[in-house]
Amino acid sequence: MAGPGAPCDPCAPAAVWKRHIVRQLRHRDRTQKALFLELVPAYNNLLEKAELLAKFSEKLKSEPKDTISTRHEDWREEVSGTGPDQVSSPASLRVKWQQEKKGLQLVCGEMAYQVVKKSAALDTLQSQLEERQDRLEALQACVVQLQEARAQQSRQLEERQAENAAQREAYETLLQQAAHQEAALRRLQEEARDLLEQLVQRKARAAAERNLRNERRERANQALVSQELKKAAKRTVSISEIPNTLEDGTKEETVALAPAALPEFSESETCEKWKRPFSFKKRRGHSVGGAPEQRYQSIPVCVSAQIPSQAQDVLDAHLSEVNAVCFGPNSSLLATGGADRLIHLWNVVGGRLEANQTLEGAGGSVTSVDFDPSGSQVLAATYNQAAQLWKVGETQSKETLSGHKDKVTAAKFKLTRHQAVTGSRDRTVKEWDLGRAYCSRTINVLSYCNDVVCGDHIIISGHNDQKIRFWDSRGPHCIQVIPVQGRVTSLHLSYDQLHLLSCSRDNTLKAIDLRISNIRQVFRADGFKCSSDWTKAVFSPDRSYALAGSSNGDLYIWDVNTGKLETSLQGPHCTAVNAVAWCFSGNHVVSVDQGRKVVLWH
Fold first, then answer.
1. Is domain 311-362+450-601 annotated with CATH 3.60.21.10?
2. Sign of dihedral through CA atoms 277, 281, 285, 286?
3. Interior CA angle at 410 toward 360 and 312, to 5°?
4. Which carries the bigger pLDDT value, residue 248 or residue 52?
5. What is the DSSP string of 188-256?
6. Domain-by-domain residue ranges, the chain?
7. Are strands 386-391 and 438-444 parallel, antiparallel or unpaired?
């Protein structure tokens, strides 16, 4: 096979194998010559000595004995080194020469055997060498193929890198365009809000002017009617001036009624009737053109919340992970829900948690728990595609709100009685009439809903697509969208309904001012990490602090006004904290984790 440097002409293969054969022959010559370098000179020396001895024996046969003996002595002296005193006979020399010849023959035979043995070993080595050369050629061919594949992959890698660079540039361009478009959208939304406010103000002024004109017109009409009535009251009316003959032949007397004899119409009543102009006023808590809404009584507002400093009570409250926790409006009743499909009610007494009641009937893992503002009902979202309603004091579920097609992640009461809102992973938000367990409205959304909160006439939902959406209960469409970084895991509305706290998977909390629909503060800290898509964060009752639990089991508290970390609490939690709750009185905090623990802080 041709090597990497072989020429590319058609005669190249023949030249290559010819050179290969020549190279192999030269190599064999060198190896065999090295083996015979010592053997051949020794064998030549032996042959020379044998020839010398043969010639010497022939000369001895042809010459006289005296000459032979003299020469033999000389030769013996020369060859064997013996002196004249040591004389041997030709017969002894012949015997000795025959012995030496036999020895040389034995040596030659042994050397021939060694030559044969070495030749066999040489053949074996030659075959091994050929095998290794064949293997080397195969490996070289494989190396050439691998080099070609490597070069091809290198070219593909360069092409992919160029494509990635182009796509990265295009992506950065798209990001910049998206940022510009979002900024333009925000400006347009702000302009739209300003225009809407101006339109509302103009309509209000026009309505006020129209009402004023109507009132003036009504007053003028009332004054005119009053004058006409006064004139009619002063006028004398004659009933009849011609006498009429009765049946009995007598005449009917003419009677003139004086003004005092007229029926008295109350001027005040008449004017009051006309002084009632038509006006429409929308009263808070009443639906348009319908019956007044039944609202819960207001909850007392906490003046100052107390920052917890230590754990007072630790319980293994559930059989598995605890997902939700919520305080009742009286701050002494607590509800916890977990993956064991149970909801436990606890009484907070003297800094301890005492078991009150266990609510059964949830068809799946409990993901959210909420008390109604009166504290008489508990609403829970479950993984069995429904929400459950309990009455405090009853262990079995009162109503089941079914209609979702996937896990229900959030369930909250509205401020209006017998109404609630649920959010699900089926990309819908539903409003419920609890009196009839009927879904009164379904809102379709483009992303999973992880949490919902409710205001007077507003529903706020947090989603997996990193957006917070606002819905008007009286309108069909989304009225506003606020984008945030990271998937939204929880929402919490302040008690004055002016600020919203969101927690997201980018390990930050955000305080949103609803009056200007803008993010006011972003809370982050070293070590704080949002552990799951259902991690809950809350405001303190006075909205001075923001509280959330981390994946390392610590609790983090930030100052809402400054945005700085106030403190972090390290306690009995050994796993990620799923949810926290701050009681309405501001004295206690409760946290639950993935390790079945419920911790009361003071």
1. no
2. positive
3. 65
4. 52
5. HHHHHHHHHHHHHHHHHHHHHHHHHHHHHHHHHHHHHHHHHHHHHHHS-EES-SS--B-TTS-BPPP-E
6. 17-162, 311-362+450-601
7. unpaired
Is there a contact between 362 and 326 (Cβ–Cβ < 8 Å)? no
The number of residues making up the chain comes to 602
pLDDT value at residue 288: 37
Q: Which amino acid is at 75?
A: W
Rounded CA separation 426/463 (Å): 11
3-state secondary structure of 487: coil
Which three-class secondary structure state does DSSP give residue 166? Answer: helix
Across the strands, what pairs with 334? 327, 346
131-153 tens-digit pLDDT: 998 999 999 999 999 999 999 99
Instruction: Kindly report the average pLDDT of the chain as a whole number.
Output: 81
Residue 34 has pLDDT above 80, yes or no: no
- Do residues 420 and 408 touch, judged by C-beta distance below 8 A? no
Query: What is the mean pLDDT of the segment spanning 466-491?
Result: 90
Q: Pull the structure tokens for residue 492.
A: 């919490």
- Residue 68's φ and ψ, nearest 5 degrees, are -65, -45
Q: What pLDDT does residue 20 have?
A: 86
Token readout for 498 is 């002016």
Tell me the pTM: 0.54
